[in-house]
Amino acid sequence: MDSVRPLGAFAALCLVSLVYFPVFSQTVELPSVVVEGLLPMSDLAPSAGTTSIDHAAIEAMAVRDLPTLLSSVAGVIISPTGAQGAQTTISLRGSTSNQVLVLVDGVRITDPATGQTDLSRIDIPLDQIERIEVQRGALSAQYGADAVGGVIHIHTKKKTATPSVDISVLNRAFLPSSVTVGSGFSATTVPFVASALVDGQTLDISARKNNLAAWAKAERAANGYPYYDSNGIRRSRTNADLLSASGGLQASSSLPIGELSASARMNYRSMGVPGTLTVPTPSAHQNDWNGSVSVHFSTDSLFAGALAMDLSPYAQFGGIQYRESESSGTDQHYSYRAGADASLSWLPPWNGELKGGASFRYDRLDSSVVKTSSGSSPQRFSEGLFLEPRVRFGKWALVPALRYDATSDFPSGISASLGVLYDVAKDTVFRSSISSAYRAPSFDDLYWPASGGVEGNPNLKPESAYSADVSVARNDGQRSWSLGAFARYVQDVILWQPDSSGIWTPSNYGNALYPGIELEGSTPVGDWQLCGNYTFLYSFVLSGNLTLADDKRVPYVPVHAASLSASRSVKNFKSAFMFTYKSLRYTTTSNVAYLPSNLIANVRLQWKLGPRTDLELLFQNCFDEQYEVVLGYPMPGFSVSAKCTVHLQGKE
After folding, report:
1. What's the whole-number average pLDDT of the chain?
2. What is d(CA 88, CA 90) in angstroms, rounded to the nearest whole number?
3. CA 340 to each of CA 315, 362, 383: distance values in angstroms, whole numbers, following the listed order
4. Are 337 and 117 in contact (CB under 8 A)?
5. Distance between CA 521 and CA 632 in Å, rounded?
6. What CATH number is given for 4-157+239-573 in this structure?
7. Domain layout of the chain by residue ranges
8. Can you tell me the distance from the alpha carbon of 537 to that of 519, in angstroms, rounded to the nearest whole number?
9. 159-205, pLDDT tens digit by residue?
10. Cα gap 570→25, rounded to integer Å
11. What does the alpha-carbon distance between residue 209 and residue 159 come to, in Å, rounded to a whole number?
12. What is the pLDDT of residues 297-307, one digit of tens each?
């Protein structure tokens, strides 16, 4: 009976939405949804697989956080470990999470210790994001290390013409139901009532005035949602509580010779770590924080506009304190990063552009656990030089790129790419590219101490990858579509697995091949805006003695993935529906054990109650799908979030 209620609620929501629309039929406002952003040819990156999501598209989707938003993009695989605030990693075209470079306003936020980007620690409210660009493919020639699977660039808002203050309060609830506590003869049934209705709350405050913008967010979540264990018994998630606070500040100023902007972000969390269903950690706890400061200067007025320059120095810091039980010690990890990126762009006498630049980065990890063989703190210096000319021949454009990177603890290397663009018609572009990329092992990969059955490997080699893709994309202002094919080959993949003595250690295990197809589209249908995508990704494990003939899939990489969203906006009412589908995912290279496919449906309804007040209802996992994305971590079922926002605006 429990699973019938979400289905009934979902059907009722659809009916209410369809009936409600005609009441405000006098004014219909279609959102500006961009699935495949076709930029001017001079602005296109060499990657043939590029998706741009603008702020209007973000507002029109049935999502409340960054991971859910990104899961609707072609080629993107999000891997959350269950509860709100739990580790959430990202994959592009089947890559590992370590092989995806994530930038916020041009600054890389990858953790130096793990080499991963935990999306749950990027606590930027969606209404503070101006746009997101997802570039799929090997892109080390443009960005240096870690861009093996691709790059995700998040741009935050910086300017506003009208002073404003927005305050919103959100409550998240699960359907009340009974759960079982204990096992065997001691098992008892406990009503799952009042606490389910106030499982989590969020407070958001943002303020803007001219060239200043600030935001703050506080969140509390019990994450006590019900799930079914391996015996089919309904239980409640425990030790998954979360308390977090985050904030950001941006400022910009127009100078006589250019534009200067600065930003700062900070995030702190205190949370329980429940572990997996088979290996629970009922007393584990973690405190973590991270922050960054960056400055960006740009000008296009040098030499009468023939030369443009960008300069971006930045600094980051972060920390993690983890305790597995009340009687155990606390592991402490503190990471630091400082660097700068600089680029010059010259418009030569011929039809084209010449871009070049340099980068420098220093990474350091001070840890109570991770040390080098000499007992010192791991550190790494990285420098890079790149050159990217763009040459036009009528409707054709060639974009070769070459980058040289020097790293203090690995041999120097060269990455290269070649992009080819052809202006098929006024609104249609053909794109293709071939490229190479690499990733240096993280500090944890190299130096994790030999304790508890785990040990790092200081003899690891960097991973390397080669990719090729081709696509045709069209955007006439109202309708857009893109169809592309790709292939990516990765060698010396770093994989943690037990050795002959049972010790978990990383090694350059082997190679993998990822061919696939991506399709994206967006079109208005009457008063609706429809967006959809489909990804076919047929991976091959080429490790050990495995070959193409063995036909083994890479673990946790679905062959089929699709997303469909529909939105409509009227004078006082907005609605959005989103469906995402992932086919089954194998959990081992033997392709025997697997996680079943899942279909997740979200619905978002928003009413404008007055000139300054909005009410929003977000229904997530409307089919109450019981599923896992990562083995051993049950995902939340059907939930309802109610959000009230007050808008205060001054004079322009």
Report:
1. 86
2. 7
3. 9, 10, 10
4. no
5. 35
6. 2.40.170.20
7. 4-157+239-573
8. 12
9. 776 788 999 999 999 988 888 888 878 889 888 778 899 999 999 99
10. 7
11. 8
12. 999 877 777 78
